[in-house]
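CORE FACILITY INTAKE
Project code: CF-77B
Contact: R.S. (postdoc)
Sample description: multi-component assembly, three entities in total
Requested service: structural model of the whole complex
Turnaround: standard
Below are the sequence entries exactly as provided by the requester. Do not edit them.
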Amino acid sequence: MIKSLDPRITRAEIELNNSIAPLEENDQWETYEVFHQKKRGDQHMHVGIVHAANPDMALLFAKEQYGRRGQSVNIWVVKTREVYTTDYEDSDIFDTVPEKMFREAGGYKVMEKINKYKKEHKI
Amino acid sequence: MYGNAYIDPNEKANSIVAGEDPEKLAEFEARISKGEKIEPKDWMPKEYRKQLIRMIEQHAHSEIIGALPEGTWITRAPGFQRKLALMAKVQDEVGHAQLLYSAAETLGKSREAMINDLITGKSKYSNVFNYPAFEWADACIIAWLIDAGAIINQVANAKGSYGPYCRALDRICTEESFHLKYGHDAVVTLATGTPYQRKMVQDALTRWWPPIMHFFGPSDKISQHTEILMKWKVKMASNDDMRQQYLNMYVPKIWDLGLTLPDPNLKKNEETGKWDYTEPDWEEFKRVINGDGPCNAERLAVRRNAEERGRWVREALKTADTKYIVPLA
Amino acid sequence: MNTPAIKELLYKMADDLLIIGHRHSEWTGLGPILEEDISFSSMAQDKIGQSQALFQLLHQLGEPDADTNAFTRNANQFYNAQFAELPNEEYDFSTVRHFLYDHADQLRFEMLAHSSYEPLAKLARKVKGELKYHVFHANTWMVKLAQGTEESKARMQTALSNAWNYALGMFEESKFEKELIAAKIFEGEAALKTKWIQAITPFIEKAGLKLPPEKEWNPVYGGRKNFHTEHLDPLVKEMGEVFRVEPASQW
């Protein structure tokens, strides 16, 4: 038995050369992706994962692991396996050619037209 | 709380990038040199993945094992403030382990596999936690001076190239700043307290100084291996550089309290701007890392016991449709 | 204001929270899985923090400062229910105690939120959120563990049966019971116990567990009158070990 400096360990009566069966697959359950909202009006942000056996516990754990400091008002958890993602390999699909100004605010220069009109008509 | 990745100097490193697709490798390296992060499903060299898993896993193990020396005093912390703060600090270490295991999982090693490697002694963790916390002051010294070392390492590594590890470290570093403040306050309280308290903290400091000097590991051998790991931003600073940075920041603060460090050669060399010190006993370092330190056997036995006591609990909550997949980020 | 009655009420609450928080903290770093380790530790911190707040109220009523009061008394000067001091054993008993205690704690503070003793009412309103989380946590764990494997179901039933009479001991009446009720400071242990049974019953049923038959209910009293099991003395000595070396020092 371990005679430890930590009284908790001494009380637990632990054999120094104990051996245990290895942890099996799914011993640590599965993972949930955690989304955290700091205050009302903010977006929920992805902050990490928790291992949990069910959604109720995932919420309890997420609250403590990601919300125990600072402000929080709301948490979402989603099973990792239920999240659909794009591949980083395909991140070039987000590249936009600069000519596509028709969907950018900067592509519309109304003041130029107004000023030109005003100048021409001496308004 | 973690010093630096222990890279076995005898490991064969001549075939690091052998067999890697040169085009993909070039793209990968270009991304890193631009300062972009690598994300879990990106292509990466085998050696990058292997070293990152090893490093993040060692870091995670160091957190969960690191909860034990400080945990030694959790039921005996003197007064409400210390009792609450120590509980919160040890809790944070467990939380850090959770964040780091999660980051390592994104590279494809399950938490179960990592825990199994820890409890069988296959994986390493920071050597410093194989030393005992004899008195209350030892827990205070750990909270201040070991966490201080960990911050230096973690701040450097947070600028590394692997996204999930950097994100975990950002969160961890924020919490470590509470540890450092708490630890400093606890040490200052003892050092400015009664003769009994002052002696207790001096004794603890004397005990912990050699492990602290070991904390960042021996001087790096200049090898192709280290160079590549630095180029890939896996290893962010040399062990000696981090040690120098540490000495520069903390020795003056320790001396300022009128405490003594057990190294007569420790002084700042005005010419080089670096700290001179007696070379730490690296034979002891190796002995301890290979299992023969004062607490190695106890630390692992305690972890095995904790896993075993929790097994029925984890088993009870497992459902038939539990299906693990690698976390996203 | 009936100071002796208030003091007695504050002492028993403060000691319950201190001792149970201390017991909870024994799991920190050694819990069944990392995420639960973190959650359980937070609740331990909440308990100790609430205890400290109650000791501060006692200090305002002329008792020693919180640290001296909590860390230097001997076991035979403590007012906690014996239920709080029992060792953690395994996660079954720890969870059952957490469930039974936290329901009572939440209801007690809910009652006290309307207490005529305003400092306590104010504190009760402040800790409402913490207690709600503790009860959420307890309900979830109690039900899930009892619905788990054959082993876990049996363990939870045994733990509940073993805990029951000690849990009933939480409601040991004070000699000031009538005064507290009359002065609208606290509605009393009997009313609390009735509410508690109502609150826990649906979860015990949902969990598929059984309470011992009522004729076997035999509350373990004594804690409120400083009588304790053999487990409290070593706990208190351990908790005060460092503080007591120099109780007048800053730590």
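Facility notes:
- Chain B has one domain: 35-309.
- The CA atoms of residues 104 and 119 of chain B lie 17 Å apart.
Invoice: internal transfer
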